[in-house]
Amino acid sequence: MTEIEDRPAGRTRRAAKAPTRGKGLKVKRVYTTAGVHPYDEVTWERRDVVMTNWRDGSINFEQRGVEFPAEWSINATNIVTTKYFRGAVGTPQRETSLRQLIDRVVLTYGAAGREHGYFASEGDAEVFEHELTWMLLHQVFSFNSPVWFNVGTSAPQQVSACFILAVDDTMDSILNWYREEGLIFKGGSGAGLNLSRIRSSKELLSSGGTASGPVSFMRGADASAGTIKSGGATRRAAKMVVLDIDHPDIEEFVETKAREEDKIRALRDAGYDMDLGGKDITSVQYQNANNSVRVSDEFMRAVEDGTDFGLRGRMDGSVIETVDAKELFRKVTKAAWECADPGIQYDDTINDWHTNPETGRINASNPCSEYMSLDNSSCNLASLNLMKFLKDDGTFDARTFVKAVEVVITAMDISICFADFPTDPIGETTRAYRQLGIGYANLGALLMATGHAYDSRGGQTLAAAITSLMTGTAYRRSAELAGIVGAYDGFARNADAHARVMRKHAAANDAIRPVGADDADVLRVATAQWQECLEIGGEFGWRNAQASVLAPTGTIGFMMDCDTTGIEPDFSLVKYKKLVGGGSMQIVNQTVPRALKSLGYQDEQVEAIVEFIAEHGHVVDAPSLRPEHYEVFDCAMGERAISPMGHVRMMAAVQPFISGAISKTVNMPETATVEDVENIYFQGWKLGLKALAIYRDNCKVGQPLSDAKAKKATAPVEAEAAPVTTTSHPVRRRLPKKRQSMTTSFSVAGAEGYMTAGMYEDGSLGEVFLKLGKQGSTLAGVMDAFSIGISIALQHGVPLETYIQKFTNMRFEPAGMTDDPDIRIAQSVMDYIFRRLALDHLPVDTRATLGIFSAEERAAQVAGSYGSASTAEVVEAEEVDVEALRGSVPTETETKSVAQEKVTPEGPKSVKEAHSSAELLELVTGTATDAPLCMTCGTKMRPAGSCYVCEGCGSTSGCS
């Protein structure tokens, strides 16, 4: 798309002066047509955006008459309008059209490119603006959120989403750390840092006292992060805290969040609101940061060999304690198994791929672990939508992809020329090293559409080839820019190291062995790009110290209407789609028909398979679908979930072609063991990853908490049983022939049943009968026998409290949301039944000792301690009558959800209300997803890299 015109002969790699006119980029048109503005090539329409909280129906946001292309989805319209349009709603200054938003950004980039000598002529600058506009308008790529927040506004022109800070072993530095994090959070970004320079609690101060240690200072930073809403309430603060494995306080650091998780469980069981964003979660510490341990090759080899490892003092590096390496590694993985923290970062691998070692080491990462660079630096991100490069014949358009990368990386570098930064040290480092983070989204959709299984050699090879092509092109363009506007300031002192890393990337590209014709074609183009990169860079150097990362792409992924985010596979085969004019519908992922056709299925077969997926949520036993093709449709969740090592293998395939790292959490089933976590972390080191984090399903209460899945089941606490009056032998106290009884209908995660409780004259419980399952079924028989056993025991004097102590918190499927306002979530049918019996038949004081309260009692507790409680916290998803809705037309707009209608051979039937693909997956498959509720609109979020993103409003739990 662009080429160098009149490259000056003999230009040295150290040249940094802006060139005179005529020695800039000559830009060619690829997407646009001369004489036609990109805006004139699309059909525009006016839409109303009304965002509501589904739990209480309140309106969170309203703007009517916004202008978007007709091809943009309702979801993308909502997210861009609410997140990125600037100006107060209802004022003339408020943006009302996507044209205004794109112009605000693109024209700022174009003006800066002209000013700093990037273009050969004014005509080239105009073509650059048109190409950039076309790509944004047609969702080919997107800049990261801070660009849309800030560029072209009166606010500071902060364009970076990711920051790395530094802290030294002084009080001034520690207090400055708190201040700098606050400024970064305020600007809508996230920050990470390494605390390993701070003396441990086992070392002395110059005054003779004992140092506090880094963990103690984490408390103040955590409280600050919990208070500040990023970007003026755009999203919560995101941060990363790293500690080296040889720090003497490493065990305290590793176990910190696991201990806090125990507190969360205890408070939850006592009736406090410990959901993510709940008002009581703030009573526990360290919940606003991701923690990671930085391990060395020396340590991992000690683990492998079963030898000792030395923990070193911070002042002189001497060994002050020796520990068993395997035992310490077990503590790291056990804590991760318990609460998903800490993640792991592989220090020697990270620094072996470092282009600027003469300037300093890489000590930390941003909160999502994809950006790794010098202390006090930042990274500007942008992501390409890979599905936009899939041609009609099912092959990847590598040559157009190259042209797109050229434009995007050029724009990203231009942004550093005018960008503002939250602190002077960050600004100085970023301008001197110009770190960029080009990446992509929709990899999972691309692989499925081309008939590749995510966890397959073919899928991994194609992903590696595309990633290599992206980074090779980015660095080649960076070298060309160095020939025009100069290499980055820190290049001269790091020239040899930078060139060495470029050769490592190129060698990794040469080591790829293509599986099919498509990845072979992409690989040929990638090889050519790396050859040019090395040639041009050898002459001029490079403009950017780093070029690529793989970010979560949460909010911007929805802006581009991507089916999958970052490097992730598809979340599920069923999707939740919002409709124009309000309402929603269930659809099968549109990538599925394309994949089936690429695999050779006929239209009639495709239609039958899609209908089967709509009904069952998976492809197992789908009509005419061959079993060997099942793996193509494996997803992150559902019947055929991709194995944890499948995710690790994909990360390992693309890591050698990324300047930074990969934002991704490896999801593990709840049944995974500590040994499984050990294996994942160990294999990540062996396979050359830079960072890795795991999340074991349902391991957290206060972080990724599901409203449709039971919380982590702790071992039942066997409280001391109430005193029982005994005789020489049990005496049965029979119920009268005529007695009062109470029948309760219930539903646990969609499993319906009935419970009848018979009582004595004094109102005490004497019998229980349970109906669950069809008459004559094994389950019905087991429940009948269980009921008889419990009833006889009650009549023989066994206290009801004893059963409640034994059976509450018992965990097995079905588990999840109930239709009982007093018991919002049950960990099993048994858990629900005995909690309900406790509420109906035990006095408040007795129930209080067991941690069982009604909704009214919980609200009263919260009101007494924290003020009035929101009624929204006890509102549950209700059964919705589809027939009643059929005769009315929704009057609310885009995000006002209506009940889903599930079509079966017997006809339509109503199911529980869904408000996102995560909730829809639960309804269709009968399984639950472990994810937090959005703090803005209340819908269930879904994973995006190592963060979570809301499909309804675009809010994220991290810095994507």
TrEMBL record:
Composition bias, Basic residues: 730-739
Residue intervals of the Ribonucleotide reductase class II vitamin B12-dependent N-terminal domain: 49-139
Residue ranges occupied by any Ribonucleotide reductase large subunit C-terminal domain in the UniProt entry: 160-695
Record key words, sorted: Cobalamin, Cobalt, Disulfide bond, DNA synthesis, Nucleotide-binding, Oxidoreductase
Reaction catalysed by this enzyme: a 2'-deoxyribonucleoside 5'-diphosphate + [thioredoxin]-disulfide + H2O = a ribonucleoside 5'-diphosphate + [thioredoxin]-dithiol
The protein's Enzyme Commission number: 1.17.4.1
Cofactor: adenosylcob(III)alamin
Gene Ontology molecular function: cobalamin binding; cobalt ion binding; nucleotide binding; ribonucleoside-diphosphate reductase activity, thioredoxin disulfide as acceptor
Boundaries of every TSCPD domain copy: 738-839
Gene3D superfamilies membership: 3.20.70.20
Residue ranges, annotated region (Disordered): 1-20, 719-739, 884-912
GO biological process: DNA biosynthetic process
Enzyme class: oxidoreductase
Role description: Catalyzes the reduction of ribonucleotides to deoxyribonucleotides. May function to provide a pool of deoxyribonucleotide precursors for DNA repair during oxygen limitation and/or for immediate growth after restoration of oxygen.
Family: Belongs to the ribonucleoside diphosphate reductase class-2 family.
Protein's recorded name: Vitamin B12-dependent ribonucleotide reductase
Organism ancestry: Bacteria, Bacillati, Actinomycetota, Actinomycetes, Geodermatophilales
